[in-house]
Amino acid sequence: MAQKPSIPKGTRDFTPEQTARRNYIFDTIKDVFRSFGYSQIETPAMENLSTLLGKYGEEGDKLLFRIQNSGEKAAEAPEKGLRYDLTVPFARFVVQHQGELSFPFKRFQIQPVWRADRPQKGRYREFYQCDVDAIGSRSQLLELELVQMVEEVFRRLDVQVVLKINNRKVLAGLAEACGFPERIVDITVAIDKLDKIGLDAVREELLGKGLTAEALAVLEPVLKLEGSFAEKLAAMRKVLAGSPVGLQGLDELEELFGYIAAAGVSLPVEMDLSLARGLNYYTGAIFEVKALDWQIGSISGGGRYDNLTGIFGLPDVSGVGISFGADRIYDVLEGLDKFPAGLSSGSRLLFANMDAAAAAYVLPIASSLRGAGVAVELYPESGKLKKQFEYADRKGIPFISICGSSEAEARQVNIKNLASGEQKSFAAGDLKAILEFLG
Predict the structure, then answer these.
(1) Burial level of 418, CB count in 10 A (0-12/13-18/19+)?
(2) Is the CB of residue 336 less than 8 Å from the CB of residue 293?
(3) 276 and which of 162, 188, 352, 399 could share a cystine (Cβ 3.0–4.6 Å)?
């Protein structure tokens, strides 16, 4: 019995149409990144396990895909794992290549990552991230650039989003105000689940971690706080009055929101005090982007980190970055029918194959058109025209050319617009006229 083909859960194949749509997302994001002066790098799919462990918190460590050593003596080879994100490998890259880089170093990276997570809608075990980071400066003008990139990416993709901003120093101050500064990780991990599990479940989780009812009485009003940025800021200055680190976080938020206003950012931006971002390496501003018109988790997120390169021997180098979740962005664009028409077609023109002589006649014409930047196909087999028209229709090829012996003798090219039905004849050497007709 033949084996039934399958792929692992949480992974996907991509058809030509899906790949074209994904490339539309990647190309849009790359163009925006480059417009702010960021350069592209790539890192290996696998890293030494020691590079990855301990960077994502206890829950993140559980989701690392470990790789069995092969082709090396097990006793001599370090354990390896598939990368969980692009930020930790980026920090390793910066330390390893620091002598070759100019700081602040501004890079972007678009590659797959892997997580041993339970597959569900919008959550995969293998997925692409589109990361952009700047490292080597503490200036919040870099945070502003990330905000502006979020605005421009989703403007080009025609998706309405909201950007939520918080600061990990504010959360650290909140842990102090609650009387449990040592529980900052437990508090942020629990708060990060607020949208998914609700306030009651977050309360139960925190009580289970040892927080008291009195601590929750301080925390809960903050999570429910509403109003303008100025109103939230004033309220939080009272809550965090006894916490220098918390007040520093509020000062940073005030500075960043000042930059956002000065830059004329029109994107909806909110101070969200329930935003925690579960990754342990964030130390300052944190970001999360959500689509307004489509129900799905965050489609972009990131933040400021001060200590990541220090783990690899390069201390006191601050960085900030944000990741665009290409797979979720794809789901939003598909759900909202926002992909431009015609992305799936690789070819603009199909030359029908009438017979061997006609094929020989159109081959140099096809080559000339390709040289002029037009994607052109010659149907590989001579046969019924109906079959060739169906091929063009299935592939979304908008033009077809049918050239037989009479066209070859007259040195003519007939081209038909399959959408409008318009048909014209051109001199074989009149590339300019042919290109104008093909649009």
Answers:
(1) middle
(2) yes
(3) 188
CA terminus-to-terminus distance, the chain: 51
The token duo for 358 is 């006609």
Q: Under 8 Å CB-to-CB from 98, ≥6 apart: which residues? A: 314
Q: How far is CA 32 from CA 156, 326, 373, 400, in A?
A: 9, 14, 24, 35
Question: Which tokens go with 254?
Answer: 């005030």
Residues 6+ away with beta carbon under 8 Å from 85: 56, 113, 129, 131, 279, 323
Give 10-residue mean pLDDT values along the chain (439 residues): 89 92 97 98 96 85 87 72 93 95 97 90 86 96 98 98 96 90 83 82 86 86 87 93 95 98 97 81 93 92 89 91 93 95 84 96 96 96 94 93 95 96 95 94
Max Cα separation, the chain?
93
Query: Is the separation of the CB atoms in 436 and 346 below 8 Å?
Result: no
pTM value is 0.86
Whole-angstrom Cα distance, residue 232 to residue 271? Answer: 8
Tell me, what amino acid is at 382? S
CB 199 within 8 A of CB 307: no
- In three-state form (DSSP H/G/I as H, E/B as E, the rest C), the secondary structure along the chain is CCCCCCCCCCCCCCCHHHHHHHHHHHHHHHHHHHHCCCEECCCCCEEEHHHHCCCCHHHHHHCCCEECCCCCCCCCCCCEEECCCCHHHHHHHHHHCHHHCCCCEEEEEEEEEECCCCCECCECCEEEEEEEEEECCCCCHHHHHHHHHHHHHHHHHCCCEEEEEEEHHHHHHHHHHHCCHHHHHHHHHHHCCHHHHHHHHHHHHHHHCCCCHHHHHHHHHHHCCCCCHHHHHHHHHHHCCCCHHHHHHHHHHHHHHHHHHHCCCCCCEEECCCCCCCCCCCCCEEEEEEECCCCCCCCEEEEEECCCHHHHCCCCCCEEEEEEEHHHHHHHHHHCCCCCCCCCCCCCEEECCCCHHHHHHHHHHHHHHHHCCCCEEECCCCCCHHHHHHHHHHHCCCEEECCCHHHHHHCEEEEEECCCCCEEEEECCCHHHHHHHHC
Other C-beta atoms closer than 10 Å to the C-beta of 193 total 14
Burial of 420 (0-12, 13-18, 19+ CB in 10 A): exposed
If one counts every other C-beta atom within 10 angstroms of the C-beta of residue 231, the result is 12
